[in-house]
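Every protein is a chain of amino acids, and every chain bends into a shape of its own. The protein below has been through that process, and both of its lines are reproduced in full.
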Amino acid sequence: MASAAEQMAANMSWSAFGKATELRQRILFTLGLLIVYRLGTYIPVPGIDGGALREFMDQAAAGLGGVLNMFTGGAISRMGIFALGIMPYISASIIVQLLTAMV
């Protein structure tokens, strides 16, 4: 007797995925965003000394810096723009809100 997963796999047809245009569009969109993100991690942040950063990351590789670099996919050691995350946006938003309260 086949399990429920085996029965479902036997009834599944790969041609059904070809007909699901919305699913295909969503998958392609997600893959496109992943490619853009990976490329963005190679664009360096202006004003960062690459040699000094490399020395710092070599020293911090054994500790917390290595773990942080691993979680960002190496973007911290390259100091790419996308390694900054959402923090610059949040900081700018707070500053603009404070300035509009003064004006």
